[in-house]
Design the sequence.
């Protein structure tokens, strides 16, 4: 059985994360995970951060993944690139995007100015596998719950940092719309995180887009553990 984390942040790239990419990789390796997706926040609809060029920003954006990947190579942990797409002004409506890499982002600066539906349609068209993260999250900064069931493949039905109401609603939503059910920790804390979620599967992921094959096969289970 192979165990994968599908939703994890690094301090290098996500301002809200507390754990560095190398420590994150070390922790998941120590828990015998097969692989880890680094899904740092990729926010569009705003000026490019730090006054960088698009090229400069995408390079910076890949840092957490690159560091974790390098650390993972020494630890027998596969580290994969993903990103958590948020299109402003729709803060809190977040999509985990798998299967498009840093080179893709580099070649497509137009994603930065696309409105949310157009952005998702473009990502889908380009071959991404898209999972809405914590769709029923409630927070003072989230203006409203927004759902785009025709623009995603799956739903994060267990997010380790959301409560039972939020996850329960996500689960009912996924079932009603027949969307793939996935789980992730949304780890911002590295080894300080207490609850972990993800998938166990008999299918090994060689490249990020394989996650889609696993979802389609149905040959996986979700896990939810408090350590
Ligand atoms: Zn965050
Ligand atoms: Zn996240």
Sequence:
């Amino acid at each position: 059985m192979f165990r994968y984390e599908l939703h994890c942040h690094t301090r290098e790239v996500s301002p809200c994360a507390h754990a560095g990419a190398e420590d994150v990789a070390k922790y998941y390796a120590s828990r015998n995970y097969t692989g880890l997706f680094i899904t740092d926040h990729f926010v569009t609809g705003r000026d490019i951060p730090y006054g960088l060029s698009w090229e400069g920003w995408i390079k910076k954006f890949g840092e957490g993944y690159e560091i974790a990947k390098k650390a993972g190579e020494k630890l027998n942990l596969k580290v994969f690139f993903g990103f958590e797409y948020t299109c402003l002004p729709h803060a809190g409506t977040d999509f985990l995007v798998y299967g498009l890499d840093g080179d893709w982002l580099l070649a497509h600066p137009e994603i930065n100015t696309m409105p949310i539906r157009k952005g998702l349609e473009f990502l889908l068209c380009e071959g991404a596998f898209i999972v809405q993260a914590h769709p029923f999250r409630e927070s003072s900064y989230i203006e409203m719950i927004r759902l785009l069931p025709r623009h995603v493949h799956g739903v994060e039905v267990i997010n380790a940092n959301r409560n039972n109401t939020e996850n329960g609603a996500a689960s009912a939503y996924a079932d009603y719309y027949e969307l793939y059910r996935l789980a992730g920790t949304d780890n911002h804390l590295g080894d300080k995180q207490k609850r972990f979620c993800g998938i166990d599967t008999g299918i090994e992921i060689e490249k990020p887009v394989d996650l889609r094959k696993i979802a389609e096969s149905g040959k996986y289970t979700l896990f939810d553990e408090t350590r």
The radius of gyration is 16 Å. The pocket of zinc ion (ligand 2) is lined by residues 7, 9, 84, 133, 186 (CB under 6 Å).
